[in-house]
Amino acid sequence: MLIEHRSEQPAVHSDAYVAPTAVVSGNVTIAAGARVLHGAVLSAEDGSIHIGVNTVIMENALVRGRSGHNVSIGDSVMVGPHAHVNGAAVGDEAFIATGASLFPGSVVGEGAEVRINAVVQVNTTLAAGEVVPIGWVAVGNPAQLFSPDRHDEIWAVQSTLDFTGTVYGAATSMREIMKGQSDFYGAHRDDREV
Q1: Residue pair 95/131 in contact by the 8 Å Cβ criterion
Q2: How sure is the predictor about 46, in pLDDT bands with cuts at 50, 70 and 90?
Q3: What is the residue-wise DSSP string for 93-149?
Q4: What radius of gyration do the chain's Cα atoms show?
Q5: Any bridge partners for residue 71, and if so which?
Q6: How far is CA 96 from the centre of its chain?
Q7: Are 46 and 68 in contact (CB under 8 A)?
């Protein structure tokens, strides 16, 4: 389903495929040979999303672009089922496995792999060809890799990367954050199918 959001319509190349149960909303460009499979959601909120040539977005993946955190997914990239790509840049020939999460401001270099349920944290840069092992966390610029049981070490790096400011702006309390999120996503009330 193609949705006009914030007066922006998706642009899908004639050689691309979007499954009938996928949702592509807003300023989204999908290149030739790209495939967006069932249940995937590509939502350009107030930013943009670009999907490269021969890239496949698997079932139930979420790709979200926001102002200041557009999404760019290069050519020949696999984004696995249930993956979450939010405000990230992904280089050509990268592999984003099932359940992987990329947070705003993150960069995944060409040919890099983010394996099953791995995380690339906010404002983190993963070098070309680098691998984040299954369930591990990449954090920092350049990325440092940690197993998930090393929470204190992850937090020591992550706390310097301004997660709350990057993702939610200046809000400081959960009440402020959620009021802002409610207002922001309320713009979907004006969406229309194209």
Answers
A1: no
A2: very high
A3: T-EE-TT-EE-TT-EE-TT-EE-TT-EE-TT-EEPTT-EE-TT-EEETTTTEEE-TT
A4: 16
A5: 49
A6: 10
A7: no
- Which pTM value belongs to this model? 0.94
Quote the pLDDT of residue 163: 86
CA-to-CA distance for 67 and 77, rounded, in angstroms?
A: 23
**Domains recognised in the chain with CATH numbers:** 2-193 (2.160.10.10)
Please compute, for residue 73, the number of CA atoms within 13 A of its CA located in the half-sphere on the CB side: 34
Element (H, E) at 154: helix 151-158
CA distance to 18, 71, 158, per residue, from 60 (Å): 13, 17, 28
Residue of 42, 43, 38, 2 whose CA lies nearest to 22: 38
Block residue for tokens 């204190």: 152
Task: Return the residue matching tokens 């990325």.
Answer: 143
For the residues 115-137, what does the mean pLDDT come to? Answer: 98
Q: What are phi and psi of 100, to 5 degrees?
A: -70, 155
pLDDT of 102 reads: 98
Cα 60 to chain centroid, rounded: 13
